[in-house]
Structure formats: C-alpha cells, structure tokens
Design a protein that fits this description.
The chain has two domains: about 60 residues, Arc Repressor Mutant, subunit A; about 140 residues, Four Helix Bundle (Hemerythrin (Met), subunit A). By secondary structure, the chain is mostly helical. Helix 1 crosses helix 3, helix 4 crosses helix 7 and helix 7 crosses helix 9. It is about 70% helix and about 5% strand. The N and C termini lie far apart (about 40 Å). The longest helix is centred in the middle third of the chain and has 25 residues. It has nine helices and two strands.
Length: about 220
Amino acid sequence: MTQKRDGAGTRAGDAYDAIRQAIRTGDFGPGERLRFSALQDLCGMSVTPVREALTRLTAEGFTVLDEHRGYSVARLSLAELGDITAARQLCEGEALRLSVMKGDEDWEARVVAAHHLMARIPQGREDMPSVMREDWEARHGAFHVALISACGSPTLLEICGKLSLQADRYRRMSVSVSGAARDVLGEHRELLERALARDADGAAEALREHYGRTAAMLANFFET
C-alpha cells in the first residue's frame, strides 16, 4: 500500500513519478544526460525535490551519477538484461508456484478479471504498433501481479515488484523487436490456464519461458 505523502515528500515523490515516466516512455533515452533545468521544467519544481528524485532513481537503477557529467539515464545492456531475467525467473516463478498452490477463489477471480481486461486491447498503439500502449502496459502489469498475489510472502512480492520495475524499459523495447513471430496473447493465455488448472510447476515453467522469450528476442537485437 502506498503511504500518503505530504510537503517535501509529496514534491519529491511527484518529481520521481514524472522523471521515471519520461525515462520509461523514452522521452529521455538511454545514456542521455539529465540537466536539472530541463527536469525542473518537466516537474514544475525547485531543484531540491528533483535532486531527491534522482537519488532514488539512481538507487533503483534508472539513472547513474558521474561526478564529472552529473546524472544521466542508465544505459541498456545485454548483461543487465540477462541478470534481471534470471532473477525474475527465479523469484516470480516461485511466487507463482506458491500462488497456484495457496490461492483461493478470490485469487482465481482476480487472475481471470485481470487477464480479461488485458486481452481486450492490443499491446501496440494503433498509430504506431511498435510502441506499447500505456493502458495495455498497466493491465499487463496488473495481470502479472494478480498471478503471484497469493504467494503468501510480502517480502517475495516486494522483490518481484522491484525486478519488474528494473525490467520495464527492456519490456517496452521488446514490442518493437518481437514482430509477428511471437504469440504474446497465447503465452498469457497459457499462464492463465495453467494457473486455473492448479498446475503449479507447469505455471512456473510457463512464466520462466515467457520471460526467457523476451530476453532472447532482445539479445538478438543487442547483438545485431
């Protein structure tokens, strides 16, 4: 649950949200230098909350600090992609396995409802299919959260949430390189069906393969 912020905490939190969203959507590209004047204009705030937001973004891996150049957007790399993917496969795979084992009817309803909402809209924008729709991304995230929500471990859920954030820019890039070769709808449908069938090991394996396909396609992109 998100705690209510006030005063300086609210301003820093709002600045964090604005800058992270600009990085997620590519308004600030990988390696791009982040100038305080531009960030202040973006956020409509003084330098202090912007600086606090950058400190948090750096701790989470979205930005990096160089003592000579200042802050810049973290670059994407094949090594980081592999590390994040392996960690997600391990942690979310186990969280899903536990959820399938422990989940009740309310959990099933959450999973079915989240999948239904996600499947109703396309992944890419109509005017630019290689760019992910923001509403699809929100529903996609909600589906994956619902899948693991019954694992029974707040600590594991927190770890999975942080890994998902770190994977976000890579996931968005995957839309532009996946093309017609990948059946994303089918992969999500398989996750749903295995979860509802209470196939704990099968669901976990399907999730690991789901993330593995994304990583493999992006690996080809990095190597070309």
